[in-house]
Amino acid sequence: MKGKALLSMVLALSIVFCFCGNTLAAEPYHLGVALGFTGTGTLYSKDQMEGIQVAVDEINKQGGFLKKHPIKISQQDTQTKPDVGVRTVKDLILRDKVRAVINDYSSAVAVAVKPICREYKTLHIAAISNSENITKINYSPYTFQVVPNSYMQAKAASYAVAQMAKKKGWKEYVTLSSDYEWGRSTQEEVVKDLKKVAPFLNVKKELWPKLGETQFASFVTSIMSMKPDFVYACLASKDNVTFTEQAKPYGFFDKVPYVGSMQSVTELITEARTMPRGLVAISRAPFFAHLDVPMMTNFVKNYRAKYNGKYPSDWAVMGYDAVYALKQGVEKAGTIDTEKVKDALKGLTVDLTRGKLQFRPIDNQLRCSSYVGVVKDDPKYPFPILAELIEIKAADSERPEAEIVAARQAEKK
Question: Which tens digits make up the pLDDT trace of 7-61?
Fold first, then answer.
């Protein structure tokens, strides 16, 4: 009897262990998405969510992370406001138990959320917001950036502007930049860099419309009255669309060269009929720049199949890349444990739609490219693209590491 009892106990324990093992193996990976689905970030956030969803669908078809942890998305609207962003991310961490959060459209929101994720030891992936300060200062080992940051984009823009200025004999320019973290930091870097690469250029005026500005007429007339050789713009999303729509009736784009504005695939599609051709624009991750990468062609195919033939925007591309970068961090760690994934991602080279790219160890910034081109029609697409495309790689646009070290040392004083 004792033997039978012992055998029964062993069998029972085996069943328990097997059950627990299967439960552990089936543990979902809780991924938070906190984006500005309302407010000025609506357009980009919606597109990014679509890219994230395509990546999650693909990975879950294979069983999830490590082929055994299905990804479960918990989504929140930050309303493109820092205080709301902090509350929503805390809610995702404490209520939904997310291990990572993709956040935000607004750099100001991302900066505000960064210390929260560090406090709760949650991975924080910036896939739209690109202020350099997200990774440059107040460093957090939990924060990673998969978008070219504001310094990188400014360097790329100044490179293109300097080339044009030399050819066209430009001397004076006006800047038009949204008055918030991204607009300020990008404009500052462009002006600073242009002083180095094109010292013959002078800033005639700096204009700072508020984020979410709806009335640009006074800015349009002011710029036209100053008659600058060109305007350098740091406007994005709805602000960029609104300015373009309100400036066009004045004949603005026929009279004033307008360069440096961010024209992502979102704008190229939504403003296909009205966008002035010939604009010199910058973009962060246009799909047509990397159709030679199999991962990109596969993503475009799956994205279009899911969203009724729609082409993916830069924001969708970077959302997709954010999930796949996380996947490869999990694979290197061999576990979904956040501490081990964080350590695995540091300095990791990942295969993404934009090619094989590395997270720079000093700041967790993805060493990705920026793109400058001329808005032109293309018979292959029902919208204009950036033609004569120049890809400015990270090696030619990222901030020197010594300057990052100096900035962090200055923080401590």
Answer: 454 444 444 444 444 444 479 999 999 999 998 889 999 999 999 999 999 999 9
Q: In whole angstroms, how far apart are CA 175 and each of 32, 219, 320?
A: 36, 11, 33
Task: Tell me the CA distances in angstroms from 252 to 84, 243, 270, 303, one per residue in order.
Answer: 37, 10, 20, 36
pLDDT tens readout for residues 346-361: 999 999 999 999 999 9
Show the domains of the chain with their CATH numbers.
25-149+290-368 (3.40.50.2300), 151-285+370-396 (3.40.50.2300)
pLDDT in tens, 132-171: 999 999 999 999 999 999 999 988 888 888 888 998 899 9
- Neighbouring C-beta atoms of residue 391, cutoff 10 Å: 15
Q: How far apart are the first and last CA of the chain?
A: 76
Tokens 């917001």 sit on residue: 129
Q: What is the spatial distance between Cα 373 and Cα 306, in angstroms, rounded to a whole number? A: 29
> Could you tell me which of 315, 311, 323 has the C-alpha nearest to residue 351?
323
Report the predicted TM-score, pTM, of the whole model to 2 decimal places. 0.83
